[in-house]
Structure prediction request, 730 residues.
Amino acid sequence: MTLDRWLSRIPIDSPSPFMKQVPTIVGFAIAVLIALVPNEIPVSNGLLFAIGSAVVVVASISSFVIPWSRFHPQWAVLVPILSLLAIGLLRIATGGSSSPFGVLILLPFVWIASEEGRINILISAIVILLVLVTPLLFSRLSHSGADFVRAFFAPVIYCLVAVVINEIAHRMRTQLAAARESNEKQETLLSQAVTAQDELVLKEARLKTANRLIQSIWNAVTEQSVIGTDLDGLIDVWNPGAEKMLGLTEKQVLDGHHHVTEFHLPSELAQRIEDMDARFTTVASSDEFSALVDTVRAGSADIRDWTYVRPDGKHVAVQVAATPRLDENGHRVGFIFVATDMTQAREFARLKDEFVGLISHELRTPLSSILGYLELMRDDEDAPLSEEQLQYLSVAERNAHRLLRLVGDLLFTAQVESGRFPLEIKDVELDSVVSASIESARPIARNAGVTLVSDVPEQRLDVRGDPVRLGQAVDNLVSNALKFTPAGGTVTVSLRPDGPQAVIAVTDTGIGIPAVELGRLSQRFFRASTATRNAVPGVGLGLTITKAIVTAHGGRLDIASEEGVGTSISIVLPVETPQPVTEALPQAELAP
Amino acid sequence: MSDQAERTRRVVIADDDDDIRGLMTIAAKRAGVEIVAAVDNGHAALEAVRGGGVDLVVLDISMPGINGVEVAEAMRADERTQSTLILMVSASVQLLTDHGVVADRADSFLVKPFSPRALSTRIREMLQLDAQRVEESA
Prediction:
C-alpha cells in the first residue's frame, strides 16, 4: 500500500477521538522517554507525575475503547480536557513553567478549540486557566510578580488562539461541507448521466428493433395497397402492396406529382360527389379528393368500395379504408388509404348468390311435385282415400312443408347475409299481425296441450314496416315458445305500446335456456343445449331470421330466460321507422 | 254471352320439369280449359303460342334455351301473341320480383310450390277477367 493510499484512508475531515488523541500520545511518549534519562528532567513530585501519566493513559485508552459515535459529539471533548489537566499535573511535577511537558498543552488545547461550537472556546479557556494558574496558587515555591502576570496573560493569549482556531475550523468545516455537497451533487449528476446514457442506448436499440419490425411488416403487406398522401392528396407513401396492385414502383410514384385520385375511376368519384351534393364539410383541394376524404375530415374513418384504375387501364375492385394521418402532436397532416383487392371476394359473393338461387330452385321444384301430387291424391273424388290413408298423407304433407320452410329459411338467411334483404315498407296494423300469428298457432298449441294466451289490446297499434316479415318474426317466436313448452304449460303473447315503441312479448313456461347461452341465441344454426337435450326439433335459424327482421325495422330483440322456469322474448319496434335498415348484418351476427 | 265466353279456352303449359308440367296440366284441365300443348322449353312454348288461338300460357321462368322471361318478351313484341295472357311460375320469389317481370311482361304469377287448386282457380279467374274485359270493350 502506498503512503498516499494509506493517508487517504485516514478520515481527516472528521477523525475519531482516538485519531485526535494520537498527537498527544506521541508527544506524551516522547516527553516520558526524555524524563527517563537521568538528570535531564527533574521530577519534583513523583506522585503528581504518576497521577498525570495515569490520567493521560486512561484518557488515551478511553478515546479508543469508548464508542463515541453513540454519544453526542460534544462528549468526546472530555478526552482532551482530561489530557490537558493531566499534562498540567505533569508540568507541575516536572518544573512548572520550565517543564518540557508544558509544550504538550498545545495538543489537547487545539483539539478542544477546533471542535464545533463557541462553547469550546470557553471550555478551552477555563481548562488552560486551571492548568497555568493553579500551580502558582498551590505551589510551595516562591513566585515573582512576573510569574503571576505571565500565568494570567498566557491564558488570555491562549483564549485568543482558541477563538482563531475555532473560527478557522468552523470555516473549514463549512467549506468541507460545501465541497462534500458539491461532490455529492456531481456524483448524482454523473449517475443520472450514466443512467440516461444507458436508457438512451436501450431506447435506440428498441427503436431500431421497432423500425426493423415496421419495415418487415411494411414489406410483408403485399396483398393490400397502402397509400399515404398529404392534406391535398399528393402521394408520399407507397407500399409494396400498392406497387403490386397498381403496377407502379415507389420511385415512379413518389416524385411529388402523383395525386391519389389519378388511380380512381372518374365516374365513381363523380357519382360520390353527386351523392354528397352540398354536404362537403370542409374546403378541399378538389371535389374529387373531397369525395375520398370528406368523411375522414369530419372525424371518422371511411370504409367504402371503389374501383382502382391501373396505368394499363385495368380495373381493380377494392375496398378502401381511409383514415387520417397524424403528426407527433396529433395534428392531421394527411391521409392513409388502405385498399384490399375485392375481386375474388365479389366473385365468391356472386357464385354464392348463384348457388343459393340454384339450391333454392332445385329444392323447391321437387317439393312442388310432392306437395302438388299429394294434394291431387287428397282431392281425387273418383278414388277417395280412407281415414288411415288420409292420415299418412297428412304426415307426408307436414314433412314436405317442413322441408319447404327450411329451404325458405336458408334462402332468407343467405339474403340477409349478402345484404339483399328486401322489405316492403307500409303502414302495418301490428295488433292484427300479432293476432293472426296467435290464431294460426292455436291448432298446434291445442295438439301440444299448451295454453296459448292472447294479450293484445283492442285498439289499433300501427307501425311502419313489412307486414309479411313482421308476421314471420312473430310466427317464429310463437312457434319456438310452443316447441319449448311441455304439455300443461302456458305461452302468453302480448302487445303493448311503450312510448315511441311497440313491444311484442312472447313468454312461455318452457324448459328455458342456460344463461351462458343467451348471447349466442341469434347466431346462425346455434341451438340451446336444453333444446338438443330435450330433442326439440329445429335447425337454429328461427331467431337469426327474427333478429334480422327486427333489426331491419330499426328495432331490437330482448331475451330473458331461466332454465326450468321459462323464456320471454320481446320484439321492440319503433312506431315510426323513417328509413328501414336494409344493410347486411355484420358477419359476426350470423357466424355460427 | 260472347263467343269468347262460350268457347273452350285454350292454354299452353311450359315447364322443363316433367312432373311439374304434368301437375300443371291436371290443374289446368280441372279449370276446364283445353291444353294446346305442354312443352318443356321456351322455343316450343313460343311456337305453340304463335300457332294461334291460345288464350293463356302458363310459363315457367327457368327453362333451357330461351327462358320464360324471354318468351314473354317475344310474345309482347309480336302482334299475334301480345294479347295472350301470361301466368308466370317460378321457384324463385326473387326472380319474380327483382326485375319487374310480373309488372312488365306477365299478367299474373305463382310461386312454386303451388297448390294445384290454387293454379286452377288462378287460371279460371284470369280467363274470366279477360272475358269480361273483352265483353266490356265490345
The longest helix of chain B spans residues 116-137. The two ends of chain B are 12 Å apart (CA to CA).
